[in-house]
């Protein structure tokens, strides 16, 4: 079934070329189906790239999905075209009286800052509080996972000396978890961050569980036992060249950055990347939509609580 997106959204052209079924709002309104309502709070500076990545991994679900793209009011991206934000994004004030079956909150390149020093921290706290009562399940990515674990449960994040950067081997810690249904015992996913969470803090909280980790990348996947919140420290949504572009950007800035591990063929940045996470990345989001959103959300969306 299709992803329902705003008419003329730039991501549509890319997705159609990949044979991903997308439908605009005018087409969808003719069908007598209640699509899942999913909000994406996009905190990444590369708005269009992130939109496309997330729509791609959401597209394999068999139920229609209608997307609202959300941006912060307290900070306006310097990289996203103003017209793009005006035409395709809503603010929290515009949607705060609406309920959603699911929400995704993306990462942001602010993990070296204390949470309270992030310009939009107050607004983000308001949004995370909103998800308690108005969203069936919220999926937090990378920095947003750390921010939400801190906000909801008081789990701290810690800056690391060397960037956790590359494609790392992970293990399944709870094979009975619905989020990891169909996963191999060992799988690979990308990470790109300067901070981490500590296992001992998470394990002290009865309401949440560590579902997957990595010897090199640390804690990857945490979820509340009721499925209300999912926290992923890595980037299951990344496309093949995202780490390459991030590496080249950091090199151009003169940063002391190492080649992303297990990413380029023979670890040579002159060669093409090897994609070894696409299937598991897509499966993770499909499982979230199925088991934590679709099967738990009420038929009447106004009954979400």
Which key terms come to mind for this protein?
305 residues; Rossmann fold; 10 helices; Class_I_gatase-like; 12 strands; homoserine O-succinyltransferase activity; alpha/beta; twelve-stranded mixed β-sheet; globular; EC 2.3.1.31
Descriptive report:
The chain starts with a strand and ends in an 11-residue tail after the last helix. By secondary structure, the chain is α/β, with parallel strands linked by helices. Helix 3 links the parallel strand 3 and strand 4. The longest helix is centred in the C-terminal third of the chain and has 17 residues. The relative contact order is 0.14. It has a single domain, classed as 3-Layer(aba) Sandwich (Rossmann fold), CATH 3.40.50. Strands 1, 2, 3, 4, 5, 6, 7, 8, 9, 10, 11 and 12 form a twelve-stranded mixed β-sheet that branches. The radius of gyration is 18 Å and the shape is globular.
